[in-house]
């Protein structure tokens, strides 16, 4: 955060210097204050002045403590991928030594008690990202700016898409079910002043869609410098998820998901050892199937407090010393015997049973790791999930033949004999797509959204430490976070009743 502040101070000083030596500029803007238009003009002249601030948004996505705590479950976006995978129960905590995730998340105490720190952590992280985005939007000239330069247009597009992504996560994680008129979370925009009351879910989704549609327009033709940045394809993927979460307009979802994967230039990860599991399909950002991800290297400063530090047996990690995170046993057993995805998990009962030893792992493959620094990368979006979302949207329109064809783009690369899919239609086909989504995207933070979209009831398998065998519906309020006590204390527009 200090780096961002310094960047804005430096930008302001540069604008003042620019004003002092340009009489025409001063005549047009006779004020001692720096206006949004003036800042936007400087951004047009030198986009690098703003790019660093936007890069900071991406850095926060893998920074420990970015949720405002010192917890070892606080490390940016992938922290909440674990939270959501555990809440929907596809990721089981099968053994607990150090206690991370057990009471608050897997026993769902935190999601029922607003004084638990995890509520504050999730809230703090995403609103921090909203604030960072709003600061950058102001720097780029404000909400209504229409930059001429392709680089500045790309920067504004990325920032709007980032803000939309944060609001999407907030409305999903703090809303029990999609109920348009239900108050949910406050909206803060670049020109918002003071504490805000809750907006309805309909209002939040409207803002998400507005930001993403504008981002898609601005990102047209923009060539990003790395996969850590949001480009037009990623923005379309986020928009597809946001519309799908409202369980309507499935034709738009199908179109956006198809465009996202096709226009991204990515390909489906084939089930071969050099890309799928055994040699790093899920730990290397250069993989041609990844649409959005970040290169984690020794200079990133990522260590034990990370996704890898919590889940990977081959990193210096909790998972190697007793806090095992594994696939739900019933979910594993539901895969067909000829499904290659079964091979991603250690299938021999025992201490490592159903850990993702052949899916997500440090490339050195040394138990407990050879270094406290993480070198394996983070994936945020990949080609396969857009195939699955497209198939789901087609099935929910009743386009069963089309949905089967789309689903087989993936299934034919995972299962030896997919002829059984040819006989599926209606609810059975939708159920199959939902299961394929869970099998394919385990550990990637997407199953929670699928559970809500499909209004599914989850039943935990025998390898969980709590609630085994108990049905938990998608709209159970134990599956969503509470607005934290600190926000209720500090924001006079929010209380426990509204």
From TrEMBL:
Occurrences of domain RagB/SusD (ranges): 373-495
Domain spans labelled SusD-like N-terminal: 85-240
UniProt keywords, alphabetically: Cell outer membrane, Membrane, Signal
Places the protein is found: Cell outer membrane
One Pfam family of this chain: SusD-like_3
Matching InterPro entries: SusD-like_N, SusD_RagB_dom, TPR-like_helical_dom_sf
Family to which this protein belongs: Belongs to the SusD family.
Name used for this protein in its record: RagB/SusD family nutrient uptake outer membrane protein
Species of the source: Winogradskyella alexanderae
């Amino acid at each position: 955060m200090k780096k961002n502040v310094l960047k804005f101070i430096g930008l302001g000083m540069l604008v003042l210097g620019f004003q002092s030596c340009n009489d025409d500029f001063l005549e047009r803007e006779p004020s001692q204050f720096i206006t949004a238009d003036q800042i936007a003009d400087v951004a047009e002249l030198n986009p690098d002045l703003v790019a660093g601030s936007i890069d900071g948004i991406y850095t926060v996505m893998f920074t420990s403590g970015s949720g405002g705590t010192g917890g070892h479950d606080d490390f940016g976006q992938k922290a909440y991928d674990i939270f959501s995978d555990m809440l929907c129960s596809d990721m089981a905590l099968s053994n607990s030594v150090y206690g991370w995730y057990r009471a608050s998340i897997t026993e769902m105490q935190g999601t029922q008690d607003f004084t638990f720190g995890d509520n504050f952590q999730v809230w703090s992280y995403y609103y921090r990202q909203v604030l960072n985005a709003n600061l950058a939007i102001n720097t780029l000239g404000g909400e209504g700016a229409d930059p001429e330069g392709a680089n500045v247009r790309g920067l504004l597009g990325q920032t709007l898409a980032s803000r939309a992504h944060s609001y999407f996560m907030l409305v999903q994680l703090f809303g029990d079910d999609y109920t348009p008129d239900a108050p949910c979370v406050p909206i803060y925009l670049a020109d918002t002043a003071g504490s805000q009351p809750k907006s309805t879910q309909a209002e939040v989704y409207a803002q998400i869609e507005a930001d993403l549609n504008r981002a898609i327009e601005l990102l047209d033709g923009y060539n990003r410098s790395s996969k850590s940045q949001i480009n037009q394809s990623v923005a379309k993927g986020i928009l597809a998820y946001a519309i799908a979460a409202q369980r309507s307009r499935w034709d738009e979802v199908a179109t956006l998901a198809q465009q996202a994967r096709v226009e991204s230039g990515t390909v489906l990860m084939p089930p071969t050892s050099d890309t799928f599991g055994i040699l790093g399909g899920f730990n290397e950002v250069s993989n041609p199937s990844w649409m959005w991800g970040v290169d984690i290297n020794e200079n990133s400063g990522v260590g034990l407090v990370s996704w890898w530090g919590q889940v990977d047996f081959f990193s210096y990690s909790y998972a190697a010393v007793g806090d095992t995170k594994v696939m739900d046993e019933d979910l594993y057993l539901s895969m067909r015997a000829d499904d290659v995805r079964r091979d991603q998990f250690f299938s021999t009962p025992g201490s490592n049973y159903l850990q993702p030893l052949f899916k997500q792992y440090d490339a050195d493959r040394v138990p407990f790791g050879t270094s406290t620094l993480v070198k394996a990368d983070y994936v945020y979006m990949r080609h396969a999930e857009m195939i699955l979302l497209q198939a789901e949207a087609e099935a929910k329109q009743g386009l069963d033949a089309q949905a089967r064809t789309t689903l087989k783009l993936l299934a034919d690369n995972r299962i030896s004999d997919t002829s059984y899919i040819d006989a599926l239609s209606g609810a059975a086909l939708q159920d199959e797509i939902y299961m394929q989504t869970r099998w394919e995207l385990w550990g990637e933070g997407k199953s929670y959204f699928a559970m809500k979209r499909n209004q599914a009831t989850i039943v935990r398998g025998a390898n969980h430490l709590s609630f085994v065998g108990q049905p938990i519906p998608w709209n159970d309020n134990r599956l969503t976070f509470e607005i934290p006590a600190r926000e209720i204390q500090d924001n006079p527009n929010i209380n426990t009743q509204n």
